[in-house]
Amino acid sequence: MPESDGDWDGNSLLLTDYYQLAMVQAYVEHGLTDVASFELFVRKLPPGRNFLMAAGLEQAVAFLENARFAADEIAWLRDEGRFSGAAVEALANFRFSGDVDALPEGTVFFAHEPILRVTAPLPQAQLVESRLINLIHLQTVIASKAARLVLAARHRPLIDFGLRRAHGAEAALLAARASYLAGFAGTATALAAKRFGIPAVGTMAHSFIQAHASEREAFANFARSRPRRLVLLLDTYDTEAAARTVVALARDLAGEGIRIDGVRLDSGDLAALSRKVRGILDEGGLDETRIIASGGLDEAGIADLLDGGAPIDSFGVGTSLGTSTDAPALDCAYKLVEYAGLPRRKRSAGKATWPGRKQVFRRYGPEGRIEADRLSTLDSDEEGRPLLVPVVRGGRRVAPLPDLPAIRAHAAAELASLPEALSHRTSGLPLLVEIAPILERLAREADRRVDTM
């Protein structure tokens, strides 16, 4: 009987492309079990993107540590009748025993630079490909989008409102995490707040207002039930009238020790309405009451509002963040770069790769801004800071990974190090990613080996 949709395990090795299982069988049966290195990278930046931000390493490492086939999954593979006994036994005994090197989460990176490298016996390194891409890709997409929003908001707080339009529950949770590490201030997704320690933020829906006999009654009831960090939603009926109701109510609530911390605008001409509401609040003595804007916002909309002087103090961002609407996918790849001690590469037109295990060396200018990245071999002695760091050795973490506050601090420093031209939301001149001559030589050698086969 088929399982229900909710009956899946994120650590299951069956959560993979079927051809990975087929290749593992062939590797095992033909003795291709030597050590291999695969590198995960992005071939090119999406249109309008000047940089990307690495994310998802914590979940990727946890997957490698816990990846298993359950007994019923092994039984399913056996019953399929398309896998040999040797292959099924190898799959049943899978435990990741390899090494991982990666960019720390929150690191800014560019096309062709490895985000993560797996070095392990070939069947192991192959089998984990699909889920690793799945985990790293999603959070990198969202963190990269969130970083652009953070830059557009110019130090104003941003809140993740993306749950309801995210592509599934896991995507919503990991999007909340990725946006927070990139600099968002909180999330409206309660489970993400609990699981990752992200500040939980919430106001009210229009239905709450509509359920009451009057807007004033709705505001008063909500205020007395939720007096701390109180934010009221203004645009259910008439936004300006609601702002005046807030001013009148604030006088009554003040006697009860309740302060209205903010009001939210979710529709209409946010620039014009925010000015009118700001004037009403200030005239009524609520000059410290913040204005929060939401409703279909993206980085361009936020930048336009602030460029126009809209008096908005923070923003809630939903669909454009949770689905990264303008660039929902990256041209992400996980390719074999070394096997049995020999550099390997792919030569397909438009998808050629650089062979060998690699390191990214970053140079900075006098003001601490990124000047150039150089892609070279792992053991080369290049100028600059090496970006990939050891994460796992022999299947075990070399040290605890940074917590979210530390990752947020690193991400903030990374954004501050961007050259001015790359920190804008429109495309600037691409960063020069230099290719070391040794990689070009390795590519020629790898090609010669293939051509003489």
Automatic annotation (TrEMBL):
The Nicotinate phosphoribosyltransferase N-terminal domain, residue ranges: 14-136
CDD domains given in the database record: NAPRTase_A (cd01570)
GO terms of molecular function: glycosyltransferase activity; nicotinate phosphoribosyltransferase activity
Reactions mediated catalytically: 5-phospho-alpha-D-ribose 1-diphosphate + nicotinate + ATP + H2O = nicotinate beta-D-ribonucleotide + ADP + phosphate + diphosphate
Database matches in InterPro entries: Aldolase_TIM (IPR013785), N/Namide_PRibTrfase (IPR041525), NAPRTase_N (IPR040727), Nic_PRibTrfase-Fam (IPR007229), Nic_PRibTrfase_pncB (IPR006405), Nicotinate_pribotase-like_C (IPR036068)
Gene3D superfamilies, A to Z: Aldolase class I (3.20.20.70), nicotinate phosphoribosyltransferase (3.20.140.10)
Signal peptide residues on this chain, from the entry's feature table: none
Keyword terms, alphabetized: Glycosyltransferase, Ligase, Phosphoprotein, Pyridine nucleotide biosynthesis, Transferase
EC assignment: 6.3.4.21
PANTHER family: NICOTINATE PHOSPHORIBOSYLTRANSFERASE
Similarity section: Belongs to the NAPRTase family.
Cross-referenced NCBIfam families: NAPRTase_put (TIGR01513), PRK09243.1-3 (NF006696), PRK12484.1 (NF009131)
Protein name, as recorded: Nicotinate phosphoribosyltransferase
Upper classification of the organism: Bacteria, Pseudomonadati, Pseudomonadota, Alphaproteobacteria, Rhodospirillales
